[in-house]
Structure to design on (356 residues):
């Protein structure tokens, strides 16, 4: 694929204090964009100065939400190089989302080329502080000006980048999670396994309720019986019960996390007992009462591992591992981030250096 590069003539000042980056607020100097038209395919791939895009108020995405996205990072190694973590997995998942929403697929090789080209142009924006990274947001939107409900005929594939601070500025502090028993996020047959905006819009009311009760995130249950555990807002969830790592199986309503997949592969390699199966919130509560619930943690690109310190289900509040990170969570976190930041050897073949 041919990618035209137009560099900005007015580069922005890079943030000096990387401890103040936060998440998703600052954007780099450039973005990648290419267009799709029915009959023509993907065309006009280019890296251009970051800036507003113009859309018709009738653009289809604004009305019916035909949109998909990804979330990934570029990491800076101790010797100053830049690298990615399993980026092809993100673009395969983008295509799986695309298929569900009748969005034209993007060849994984082309998407990877777009990623490497954009990050090479903006590589000075990859933070140097330990734990900070360049968050990368690829997305596709339907842009035809048309108010009928049908798949679009014109799309934009865009990649933007945002330098983001360390998720854990002061150690891995456990989060408090609220089990949502009223609202549901997704159901089997719906779009739960895709990264599409509508799923997140559906999650806001539950999230709001959790915040009102001083919990930081929501644990979703299945949409049919409100019994089986699904996942957290933007993380998959794992339990260590009596020495066994248990996580809900992928059955259509859960996002197939790349961190989830990597953690399972790592734990299997370490010889741990690992199972992907249906698990009810009642089973978790029973394990807690029996003293067998050892660790609970979320997995996702943003935090990698997010230990859960408190889990509230109805009137029951479970305090897990004395509200401290557990040994298994810590070991997984250290190994994954060690590889991502180039401090540990990549024994799994997961690291992809930025092409120069
Ligand atoms: C992105 C996301 C995850 C985590 O996926 P990763 O590939 O590990 O970042 C989990 N659940 C939801 C709902 C998500 O959007």
């Amino acid at each position: 694929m041919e990618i035209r590069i137009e560099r900005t003539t007015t580069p922005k000042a890079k943030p000096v204090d990387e401890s103040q980056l936060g998440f998703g607020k600052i954007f780099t100097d450039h973005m990648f964009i290419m267009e799709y038209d029915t009959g023509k395919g993907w065309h006009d791939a280019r890296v251009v100065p970051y800036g507003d895009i113009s859309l018709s108020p009738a653009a289809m995405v604004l009305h019916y939400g035909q949109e998909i996205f990804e979330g990934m990072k570029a990491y800076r190694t101790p010797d100053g190089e830049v690298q990615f973590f399993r980026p092809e997995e993100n673009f395969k998942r983008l295509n799986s989302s695309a298929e569900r929403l009748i969005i034209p697929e993007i060849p994984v090789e082309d998407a990877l080329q777009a990623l490497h080209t954009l990050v090479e142009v903006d590589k000075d924006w990859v933070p140097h502080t330990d734990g900070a990274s360049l968050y990368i947001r690829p997305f596709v939107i339907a842009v035809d000006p048309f108010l009928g409900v049908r798949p679009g005929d014109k799309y934009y594939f865009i990649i933007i980048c945002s330098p983001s601070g360390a998720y854990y500025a002061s150690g891995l502090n456990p989060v408090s999670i609220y089990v949502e028993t009223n609202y549901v996020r997704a159901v089997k047959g719906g779009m739960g396994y895709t990264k599409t905006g509508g799923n997140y819009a559906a999650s806001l009311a539950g999230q709001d309720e959790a915040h009102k009760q001083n919990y930081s995130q929501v644990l979703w249950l299945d949409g049919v019986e409100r019994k089986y555990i699904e996942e957290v807002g933007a993380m998959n969830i794992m339990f260590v019960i009596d020495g066994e790592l248990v996580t809900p199986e992928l059955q259509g309503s859960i996002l197939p996390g790349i961190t989830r997949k990597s953690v399972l592969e790592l734990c299997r390699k370490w010889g741990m007992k690992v199972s992907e199966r249906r698990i009810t919130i009642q089973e978790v509560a029973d394990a807690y009462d029996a003293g067998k619930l050892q660790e609970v943690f979320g997995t996702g690109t943003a935090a990698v591992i997010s230990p859960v310190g408190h889990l509230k289900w109805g009137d029951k509040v479970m305090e897990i591992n004395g509200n401290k990170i557990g040994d298994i969570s810590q070991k997984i976190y250290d190994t994954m981030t060690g590889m991502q930041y180039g401090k540990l050897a990549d024994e799994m073949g997961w690291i992809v250096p930025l092409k120069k």
